[in-house]
Every structure is written in structure tokens, then in C-alpha cells.
Specification:
Elements (H helix, E strand, L loop, with lengths): L7 E6 L9 H5 L5 E4 L2 E4 L10 H5 L5 E7 L2 E4 L1
Amino acid sequence: MAKKSELKKEIKIKESWCKGCEICVEFCPHNVLAMKDGKAFVENLQACTACGLCELYCPDFAIEVFVINDATHIKK
């Protein structure tokens, strides 16, 4: 099995749902997310371990973290 850092990942952020609270940025242990123009965005996807903390703590349900397996999205 691949290490978490080697997994293919995708982070989807629904900009229209993001209120810019920065909770996801603060909870990310690997500084994957950042803020731009008052919205969260993925700054460093390679550092993501797909832990899901950003998705878990987003109060607006604006973030989804996926692990990709053979062209199939598998929700973490």
C-alpha cells in the first residue's frame, strides 16, 4: 500500500460556500491550504496526507477531500 504522502488526492473547495473563516487553514497540519481574496484555496496539494481535518472542521461544508484510485474518486 502507498504511503499517505504518495496517494493521489484531490481537494475540492466550493468557493460559493466558503465564508473565509480560515478554520480549514488553521487546522491543516501540513499547510496545504491558504487564503486568497477571502476564500480558501489549495496551495500545496503535494503536502496533503488526506487526513480530512479541513473537511471535518469546515463549518460550511465547503471542502471535500478525495483519494483517487484508478480513475475512481473514493471519498476519505
